[in-house]
Amino acid sequence: MANSSETAQTATEYVQHHLGFLTFGQRADGTWGFAHSVEEAGAMGFWAINVDSMMISLLLGVLFLGLFRFCIKRATTGKPGGLQNFLEIIVEMVQTNVKNSFYAKNDLIGPLALTIFCWIFLMNTMDLIPVDWIPLLAQTVAGDPHLYFKAVPTTDLNITLGFAVSVFFLIIFYSIKIKGLGGFLGEFAFHPFGKWALPLNLLLELPGFLAKPVSLALRLYGNFFAGEVIFLVIALVGVWQLPLHFGWAVFHILVVTLQAYLFMMLTIVYLNQAHTHH
Question: Taking the model in full, what pTM does it have?
Answer without folding.
Answer: 0.91
